[in-house]
Amino acid sequence: MAQEALYGRARPKTLAKLIGQDHISNALAQAISGDRLSHAYLLVGTRGTGKTSTARLLAKAMNCDTVRDAQKSGRPLDKKEIPCNKCDACRNFNASPDNVEFDAASNRSVEDVTRMLSTAYLAPLVSHTKTFIIDEIHMLSTEAINSILKLIEEPPSNVAFFLATTEVNKVPITIRSRCQVLNFRLIPQTTIAPYLLRIARHLEVDLHEDAAKKIARLAEGSMRDALTYFDQCYSSGGKEISLVDVDEMLGLISDEKLDKIISAVNAHDRRATADAITVAFNSGVAPNSIAESLITRLRDLEFAKLNRGEKSFAGVDTLVDALRKSISEMYGSGIPDIILEMTLLKLAAPVQMSAQLPTVATDRPLSANLDAGKKIFYDVLNNFGRQDDDINHLLKKAVVTNFDGKTLTLGFKSATLANMFGNNRQVEFEQQAAQAAGHPIKISVVVDKNLSASILDQVSEPDRTALADAMNAFGASDATKI
Ligand SMILES: [Zn+2]
User: Fold this and answer.
1) Residue 394 in contact with residue 417, Cβ under 8 Å?
2) Cα(12) to centroid of ligand 1, in Å?
3) For a designed S-S bond to 261, which of 69, 230, 269, 276 qualifies (C-beta 3.0 to 4.6 A apart)?
């Protein structure tokens, strides 16, 4: 496979070329220089972080003539010459009968594995040290594990074991305690992206920087995945790979399409949300992949805001939670597209404004008492008004005319409305207002036939849109008609 080919070609040839695992390559270089290598290593880490590559480098270095000469003479070795790749032992390493490699995850029979392990007791045929590299050690049968245990407890001379695993908790403690453990870290995106750009330059491919970053992010710490994605784009594309190419070739949805969905939902615009979802579906990306990409995109946008020292945008937690829930609902469902569509449309419903309105109101300092009064009023309108149609109806006809910090004055155009409010709802409103303000609030009601200002007219420009949405939430599509 072409993907394997690039990963294979890009395997590090020396410890100096091991990417993103300096803590391991430095420690190993010192151990090799001091001739202090162990006869059993347990290499632990996520797939594609360099475990097998490191095992091969070590196996090769143990037999490298240059390394062994340096060890004998006490000459310190540079990471670049471990192994040298020039001596006979290095050049013949790949064909050496003394290096045994197998993947315990493949369906090898117990007999097969036992037979391979039994050769550990025979002297190396052509090399100095016989090496065994076993991937996914935790998948071995108990019988095979016991054979290995015996071998590392009383090792025959000139034998070394490199046991790799992605699930160290499944490796028996007896094995773990007898091996030198090397913990491989996830490789940071900031290491993967420049590495991809370097490889691309070497291959004379114009890989765009944002495309490299996207691949690095998708790889989630695995260099193998990064190279596989890059190879996929490289083999199906041309000499130039852009962000759009990466999205298309890997069957991903573009950030632009995701941003349209996010801003439509955030603006509580159901029409725009429906349109943006349709566009996303038309790109042929699976609904669960769209939902996952939305979560990733939201996380990226949040991090970007954090880095700029900005506040996170309202409702992001709700959105992520809902998307996460929808992904599990989609699993095994015959209607994943409808599940995602309904999730997003529900989030785009104006009713979500309850979470956002106070945020908008507190974004700017309350410049005057009247502003503080209005904020309390909107909070009550948002909570109390939602629970009760009657009070909602009444409050939509009220205007905050004054607030001195203790008494909130509400103006009504007619005495009938003022009486309805005063007789039936004033006490409850005061309780709600006290809750919103955090201290007792008295309500004073005034009647003024000349009151023409609707709620919208009282609000400063930045709040107007948010308020209009809040009014929509209560069924007042045109707040100025109140
Ligand atoms: Zn060599």
Assistant:
1) yes
2) 15
3) 276
Tokens of 343: 């999730």
Reading the block at residue 390, the tokens are 């009657």
Q: Provide the token pair at 416.
A: 């009938």
What is the distance in A from the centroid of ligand 1 to the CA of 56? 13
Distance 15 CA to ligand 1 centre (A): 13
Residues 353 and 469 sit within 8 Å (Cβ to Cβ): yes
**Cα 66 from Cα 68, distance rounded (Å):** 6
Type of residue numbered 326: S
Give how far Cα 310 sits from Cα of 260, 320, 357, 446, Å: 21, 19, 18, 42
- Distance from Cα 87 to the centre of ligand 1, integer Å: 4
- Cβ atoms of 57 and 31 within 8 Å: the answer is no
402, containing H or E segment: strand 399-403
User: Cα(5)–Cα(50) distance, rounded to whole angstroms?
Assistant: 16
Quote the ligand 1 centre to 68 CA distance (angstroms): 9
> 134: CA distance to ligand 1 center in Å?
23
**Of 452, 459, 456, whose CA–CA distance to 478 is shortest?**
456
Answer for the pair 449, 416: CB distance below 8 angstroms, yes or no: no
Going from the Cα of 43 to the center of ligand 1, the distance in angstroms, rounded, reads 23
Distance (angstroms) between ligand 1 centre and the Cα of 99 equals 15
Predicted pLDDT at 454: 44
Q: Which helix (H) or strand (E) holds 256?
A: helix 255-266
CA of 308 to the centre of ligand 1 (A): 50
CB distance 412 to 445 below 8 Å: yes
**Mean pLDDT along residues 124-148:** 92
For 98-117, write each residue's pLDDT tens digit.
Answer: 999 988 888 677 788 888 88
Average pLDDT on 447-464 reads 52
Q: Which residue has the tokens 């491919």?
A: 205
Are the C-beta atoms of 31 and 97 separated by less than 8 Å?
Answer: no
Distance 128 CA to ligand 1 centre (A): 12
Tokens 């809040």 — which residue? 470
d(CA 92, CA 65): 12
Nearest to 400 by CA among 392, 391, 411: 411
How many A from CA of 103 to the centre of ligand 1? 26
Residues 421 and 445 sit within 8 Å (Cβ to Cβ): yes
Question: What's the gap in Å between 89 CA and the centre of ligand 1?
Answer: 6
- The CA 254 to ligand 1 mean position distance, Å, reads 47
Q: Do residues 375 and 361 lie in contact, with contact meaning Cβ atoms separated by under 8 Å?
A: yes
Task: Give the single-character DSSP code of 119.
Answer: G
89 within 8 A of 99, measured Cβ to Cβ: no
